[in-house]
Amino acid sequence: MSIINEALKKTELSIQKNEAVKDTASNGKTGKRPILLYIFILIAGLFLGNLIFSLLAHKAHPANIIKAAPSVQPTPSIQQQIPNTQTPTSTASLPKQDINVAEPSIRQKPDFVLNGIFVSDNDGYALVNNQIVRENETVDGAKVKKITATSVELDLEGVITTLSTRR
Questions:
Q1: From CA 95, how far away is CA 74, in angstroms rounded?
Q2: How confident is the model at residue 21 (pLDDT cuts 50, 70, 90)?
Q3: CA-closest candidate to residue 148, choices 139, 157, 167, 130
Q4: Does residue 112 contact residue 129 with C-beta atoms inside 8 Å?
Q5: How far is the C-alpha of 145 from the C-alpha of 133, rounded, in Å?
Q6: Distance CA 111, CA 105 (A)
Q7: How far apart are CA 79 and CA 87, in angstroms?
Q8: Three-state DSSP class for residue 17
Q9: How distant, in Å, are the alpha carbons of 34, 86, 87, 93, 94 from that of 90?
Q10: Would you tell me which of 124, 133, 137, 138 could form a disulfide with 147, CB atoms 3.0–4.6 Å apart?
Q11: Sequence-distant contacts of 73-79: CB under 8 A, at least 24 apart
């Protein structure tokens, strides 16, 4: 029986050696392929993502939207203002008028949205226009005057605006 045990041990050792050789050989050969495959998949994904993003950005680009330009009417010339007159034949020309119309600079009051209020024992915090503010801080040019449990008072250039919760 000892002969059989020795034969089994030798066979087992040779099988283990063969498996170890296969593992080292297979790790060297197949180890590079999955890495290359992952790199290829990553590059392909980045390329496709860039392509899709550029197509979506091209469709939503504001330059592709046709806007109606405000029509600017030139002021009528002297000939059009005074009917039944002859055009002067002299070489002197009238000064050209600029058609550029300057838009009046009207400063619009910013919209304020009260997103939430948190009041503790001593301090009050408000979430206005998605910014966390406390009293005496500013948000979009307005100073926070007072924070209560249900409202926030803002001072914008001397005008007091009260924002309140919907409760």
A1: 14
A2: confident
A3: 167
A4: yes
A5: 11
A6: 18
A7: 7
A8: helix
A9: 88, 12, 9, 8, 11
A10: 124
A11: 74/99
| 3-state percent helix, strand, coil for the chain, nearest multiple of 5 | 40, 20, 40
Instruction: Return the closest-CA partner of residue 136 out of 151, 153, 148, 159.
Output: 153
Burial 121-156, CB ≥16 within 10 A → b, else e: eeebbbbbeeeebeeeeebeebebeebeeeebbbeb
Give the gyration radius of the chain's Cα atoms.
40
Residue pointed to by tokens 């080292």: 24
CB 162 within 8 A of CB 153: yes
Q: Token pair of 157, please?
A: 């250039």
- End-to-end, the C-alpha distance of the chain in Å comes to 92
Phi, psi of 68 (to 5 degrees): -80, 120
Q: How confident is the model at residue 64 (pLDDT cuts 50, 70, 90)?
A: very low
Burial of 90 (0-12, 13-18, 19+ CB in 10 A): exposed
- Put simply, whether the predicted model's pTM sits higher than 0.85 gets the answer no
